[in-house]
Amino acid sequence: PRITYIEHDGTEHTVEVGNGLSVMEGARDNDIPGIEADCGGACACATCHVYVDPSWIGKIPAKDDAEADMLDFAAAPTSGASRLACQIRVGDHLDGLIVRMPETQG
Ligand code: FES
């Protein structure tokens, strides 16, 4: 699946991410800046905060309580579009997904 990551300054990166990886791992493996992922994907740092494009919010499995709780620790303001990129599992249903990175992760 192809995923588009948009940096806070508007720089876009569209890359192919393998099924089963997380949206965070897709950014990390392609050296896309803006997602720090200090905890390595354990839902324990909130430095992988992204804003899911409005057109995709309803198409992604809802966040669980652990993700919702950890998002409270995100450095940038959160919104209904906020997710932790390490908790979004890539699959064919996410082909074309667009996420935007916040101004800061820490
Ligand atoms: Fe730490 Fe996602 S990488 S919460």
What share of the residues does DSSP label as strand, in percent? 15-25%
Number of strands: 5
Bound molecules: FE2/S2 (inorganic) cluster
Count of helices? 2
**CATH top-level class:** Alpha Beta
Whole-number mean pLDDT: 97
How far do the termini sit from each other? 29 Å
* CATH fold annotation: Ubiquitin-like (UB roll)
Structural class: alpha+beta
* Tally of discrete structural domains: 1
Strand order in space, largest sheet: 2-1-5-3-4
Question: What's the quick description here?
Answer:
By secondary structure, the protein is of the alpha+beta class. It has helices spanning 23-29, 65-71; strands spanning 2-6, 12-16, 49-52, 82-84, 97-100. The model has no long low-confidence stretch (mean pLDDT 97).
